[in-house]
Amino acid sequence: MKFKSIQIVLPVSTTNQFRLISHSIISHDRKHT
User: Fold this and answer.
1) Which of the 8 DSSP states describes residue 1?
2) Rounded to two decimals, what is the model's pTM?
3) H/E/C letters for each residue in 1-33?
4) pLDDT digits over 1-33, tens only?
């Protein structure tokens, strides 16, 4: 059970990190223009 919950939480955290990175890249691009 514990392993399953970890499996679910891990992808979610990576997706959130990816969104944060992409968001920061987008805002950086907007500042550049």
Assistant:
1) -
2) 0.45
3) CHHHHHHHHHHHHHHHHHHHHHHHHHHHHHHHC
4) 566 766 667 677 788 888 888 888 888 777 766
**CA 20, 21, 22, 23 torsion: positive or negative?**
positive
How does 1-33 read in b/e, with b if 16+ C-beta sit within 10 Å? eeeeeeeeeeeeeeeeeeeeeeeeeeeeeeeee
Q: Position 2: which residue type? A: K
Structure tokens that stand for 24 in this block: 């920061």
Measured in residues, the chain has a length of: 33
